Amino acid sequence: MSPSVPLQEMIRAIRSARTQCEERGVIQRECAAIRAQFRQADNGGRSHNLAKLLYVHMLGYPAHFGQMECVRMIASPRYSEKRVGYLGAMMLLDEKQDASLLITNSIKNDLSHSNQYVQSLALCTLACMGSAEMCRDLAPEIDRLLRASNSYIKKKAALCAVHIVRKVHELGELFVPAARSLLSEKNHGVLHGAVVLIIELCEQNPETLERFRKTVPDLVQIMKGLVLSGYSPEHDVAGISDPFLQVRILRLLRILGRNNEGASDSMNDLLAQVATNTDSTKTVGNAVLYETVLTVLDIKSESGLRVLAVNILGRFLLNNDRNIRYIAMTSLQKIVGTDHNAVQRHRGTIVDCLKDQDASVKRRALELSLALVSASNIRSMMKELLLFLSSCPPELRAHAASGIFNAAERYAPSQRWHIDTMLHVLITAGGDVRDETVPNLIQLITNASELHCYTVHKLYRALLLDISQQSLVQVACWCIGEYGDLLLKGDCQETEPVQVTEDDALDALETVLQSHMSSPATRGFALTATMKLSTRITDNVDRIRSIVSIYGSCIDVELQQRAVEYNALFRKYDHMRAAVLERMPVIEKNSPGHTNGESTGEAVKDVPTAKMKQGEPLLLQQPANQVHRSDHPPGPAVDCLVSGLSVHAAGTAGGDLLDLLGGFEPAELSPVLAYDKGGVTLTLSCEKQSDTGLTVTLTASNSSDSDLSSFTLQAAVPKSVQLHMKAPSGDSLPARGTAKVTQMVVLNNPNKVNLKMRVRVSYTRQGSPFQDTVQIDSFPGLDSQL
Questions:
Q1: How many Å apart are CA 306 and CA 339, to the nearest integer?
Q2: What average pLDDT does this structure show over 584-611?
Q3: Which residues, listed in sequence order, are joined to residue 765 by a DSSP beta bridge?
Q4: How far is residue 382's CA from residue 341's CA, in Å, rounded to a whole number?
Q5: Neighbouring residues of 155: CB distance < 8 A, sequence distance ≥ 6
Q6: Which positions fall inside the GAE domain (predicted)?
Q7: Which of 716, 695, 658, 675 is nearest to 781 (CA)?
Q8: In what side-by-side order are the strands of the sheet with 768-776?
Q9: Buried b (16+ CB within 10 A) or exposed e, 196-232
Q10: Stretch 239-264: mean pLDDT
């Protein structure tokens, strides 16, 4: 290839290369020829060579050796060379390179050039890659050009001023007078640049925002002129007059009217006019309507205008474009707390969006549907949500189940309906529910004393049909152990009569114990249920004794310990077995407004029992790590678990049992504050599961005045530590701490290294993403244990 080959020929040669190696060879030869010509003092093809180098740069190959050539060409008096030089500077230079400082003087000279196109080149370059130092030096020149008579220059100077304000905030005051005067221009390009500049100035300085609130009437007049103007070929886009300028003005009005009643009143009539007169059949019209809706919802607008905005979003939900449906639901999600009744009118359309094929639309529809659940529509909404749960994607199942549990707990019309709903979720998505679901449902069942017979029969049938859903199996085993006598009677009037024998009940529990699908925790439930049946049946006690003895040599330590204790109860303390294994008392929560996984106050109700000292025996119906949660005080739990059991401290059989089962009580660890920034707080609580295992619960809350969406927590630990993050309780944090998000992290530290964890907090606030990282170097209460 000869050095004088044109740009088109070079492009053709590069595209015809068959291999990457051949392409590199073509580029290396051409770059060598370009270098040689750059060294020549009098080179007539400088712009031609630099254009070829820029194409090489676009392909990703190094082209830094052309930076000084860009500087020389910018200083050239010829427009053709200056144009390519400025283009090369925007592509090859940035503010971090020293070579960019060399063009400052050339830009300053060109800003005063008599040719408007040369001035335009200088303005574009400064707006693209101007450093803070360049902006400070050239800001007076930009302010002068903002007052020029040439509209072509003024619109580019306005956009250049935007870049300067972003780089150097304190220079914003310099452009305030010129920016305000630009609003009187008739040229739409100048108006657009002026509005963008004013938006930037208002966002940077609250005092400037107050000054520009006086321009609201001017902006309203400009907007009315656009809405009511006839057909203008120069500005018409699909029947809308300059929609780009309309969107910018609406955005500026939203900023000026926020938290200001006077400014909001001035624009109410305009917003109503735009909302009713804009054509919604075209994408362009929908863009203007969407900005109008955002402005109405963000300012102190009239109630009728807010209802009109919600109705526009409701029409968006019927649009065939999934993007429009998505942004409509995103906007409705933000206002469902303040305009609940207006959003409720579109409940049917929102529920229909649950059937959409797009995963993002489904997720937004699910979040909005859960937010719309109330006491008046709980039955109809829950029917739709349960139908969605049975067919939703796996990635949404945990979120849907968690939302259904929270809604059922808050608005349940009856205890039976509440139990049926939770059982339906466990049957459908038992593998995706949170860990605290099992103890919460057990507590609900315990409190509904009149439904014990109905519940145990229903759970027994569900256990026979499916033992793969671990949460369902655990609750079913617990109920069979507690209320096995009611199951065997078979006189439940609320269900179909089914005769269950003692062998049938034991067969079901033994199936769970022997199933490969059962987790160690589930086997613990089943073994304890089997043991409890020994006091509720009469003919198969020997079979229960043999089942328990088999697991005395189980490889699982927890199950083995449990079986050994139960065998000891059979052999040495059989006279105490009925009292130890009697039915659990009612457990109550003090806080009526709790949600799943959150509890305040004492977790259980004190009942009159014999006093027990620390370390005295207690036999748990559930695995220890699930019965005792860190927010449940252990004292009352001990009292109620051994209700009616009288044990003497010394010199009796109870003293021997104390030696066998002593030290079984879990440690209580208080949560600590790990992160607090921007209204978002993150607390950490720890629970030691084994010598090397640890469960960390992260609880996030939002005390700010704006809702947070797309909330996620990510954790990283040293390589020798194994980490497993379970499904979070949700991905949104409502404002003012009305709800929390919990995330459980299971850690295994086999080498017992110094434990550290880094947590990344990510969320979106008012459309702006945010991300932060916190380092956790110590875990409270565990230093003495690990």
A1: 8
A2: 45
A3: 708, 768
A4: 18
A5: 187, 189, 190, 192, 193
A6: 667-780
A7: 695
A8: 708-716, 757-765, 768-776
A9: bbbbbbbebbeebbeebbebbeebbebbeebbeeeee
A10: 90
Say how far residue 615 (Cα) sits from the centre of its chain. 43
Residue 656 has pLDDT above 60, yes or no: no
Task: Express each pLDDT in 125-172 by its tens digit.
Answer: 999 988 888 899 999 999 999 998 899 999 999 999 999 999 988 888
Residue 382 half-sphere exposure toward CB, CA atoms < 13 A: 24
Phi/psi of residue 309, each to 5°? -65, -40
Cα–Cα distance measured from residue 525 to residue 517, given in angstroms and rounded to the nearest whole number: 14
Which pair of tokens denotes residue 560? 């083995």
Tokens of 429: 């998505």
Cα(267)–Cα(274) distance, integer angstroms: 11
The stretches of 130-205 forming alpha helices (DSSP H) are: 132-146, 151-167, 172-182, 188-204
312 neighbors 272 (Cβ within 8 angstroms): no
Burial of 538 (0-12, 13-18, 19+ CB in 10 A): exposed
- H/E element, 410: helix 394-411
Beta bridge partners of 743: 698
Answer for the pair 154, 190: CB distance below 8 angstroms, yes or no: yes
At residue 115, φ and ψ (nearest 5 deg) are -90, 125
Which DSSP state fits 304?
Answer: H
- Tokens 């906007």: give the residue: 331
The pLDDT value recorded for residue 589 is 58
Partners of residue 708 on adjacent β-strands = 733, 765
| Least confident window among 18-32, 253-267, 622-636, 698-712 | 622-636
CA distance 648 to 616: 10
Q: What is the DSSP string of 112-133?
A: T-SSHHHHHHHHHHHHHH--HH
Find, among 276, 282, 281, the residue nearest to 293 by Cα.
276
- Looking up tokens 């370390």, which residue turns up? 615
Region of 678 please: left (phi>0), alpha (psi -120 to 50) or beta: left
- Measured distance CA(211)–CA(218) in Å, rounded: 13
**In the beta sheet, which residues pair with residue 697?**
685, 744
As a whole number, the mean pLDDT across the chain is: 82
Residue 291, Cβ density class (10 Å: 0-12 exposed, 13-18 middle, ≥19 buried): buried
Q: Enumerate residues 6+ apart whose C-beta is below 8 A from 86.
A: 70, 74, 121, 122, 124, 125
Give DSSP secondary structure letters for 198-249. Answer: HHHHHHH-HHHHHHHGGGHHHHHHHHHHHHH----TTTEETTEE-HHHHHHH
235 DSSP β-pair partners: none
Residues 164, 540: Cα–Cα separation, whole Å: 86
d(CA 490, CA 493): 9
Please, are residues 428 and 390 in contact by the beta-carbon 8 Å criterion? yes
β pairing state of 768-776 and 757-765: antiparallel
| Contacts with 693 (C-beta within 8 Å, 6 or more apart), sequence order | 746, 747, 748, 749
| Residue from 435, 508, 420, 523 nearest 471 by CA | 435
Q: CB 750: neighbour CB atoms within 10 A? A: 11
Q: CB under 8 Å to 234, separation ≥6 — which residues?
A: none
Are 524 and 559 in contact, with CB atoms under 8 Å apart?
A: yes
